[in-house]
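Dear colleague,

Thank you for sharing your sequence with our group. We've completed the structure prediction you requested, and as agreed, I am returning the results in plain text so they can be pasted directly into your records. Please verify that the sequence below matches your submission; if there's any discrepancy, let me know and we will rerun it promptly.
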Amino acid sequence: MQINWQGVFPAATTHFHADQSLDLANTLQHNEVMIEAGIHGLVMLGTVGENCSLTYNEKLAVLRATVEQVNGRIPVLTGVAECTTALACRFAADAAKIGVDGLMLLPAMVYKADARETMAHFRTVARTTDLPILCYNNPVAYGVDITPAMFAELADEPTLVAIKESSENVRRITDIKNACGDRYAIFCGVDDLILESMVVGAVGWVAGLVNAFPHENRLLWDLASRGDYAAALAIYRWYMPLLHLDTHTKLVQYIKLAEAECGLGSEMVRAPRLPLAGEERERILRVIRQAIATRPTVVT
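Please find the predicted structure tokens below.
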């Protein structure tokens, strides 16, 4: 499928049974809820999808099931987050055989590469696949920063077509535009910067809290996309306490707890992550329950 690089692409959660084994049925059921709410694409096996907590074969199983389920209705991307460049190339090839439509490529995990090494990693993977690649820049989480100047240097790789910008510095979007023009489609990767990012040129959103609030998330996107900023701001201000949950180290636990409270999944995560407990759990529940109690009316 040809990817239309715009709109809301959830970083979908991966569901687990109580014993932490993979729960494909509920993963797919949850995907379907978001598809019915009008998402524009799916990103499986990103950070929120607990990529690095799954075995290689489990990742492929998630992709096979998702590609079969979606059946060409929307694009399916997969995160590529491996510890070596060679393994990233192998995973990209195996994902392509399964039938994914694109890749979301991260720097190599664990080792914090310098600029030369980071660009070599992206070039090597890009040259081993025909799939279009969304480059994921998240120096906050992964300690590797792909700067606008680096993206300008990488612009000669035709399969690198889009950027998920998660530096938490919304100025970066303008800097990328100034350095690269319209060479890349820019996606916001930080939930609580989406409206600001759209104003300065983001055309897509790799979203986290959409997993729990798909209809409200789509409403915000639609209002902002058509320039109805007064209405969008009202939704954004309601949504913001939830969106802040996307920027914490425990974003996976927070998002899954929100899913559970909304009846869309369970809060089970895979160790070393653990479900929330004690004061922290109660504090996050208050945020979620307040949002549910005051959620805007959405016509579906």
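Summary note from our side: The longest helix spans residues 278-293.

Kind regards,
the structure core
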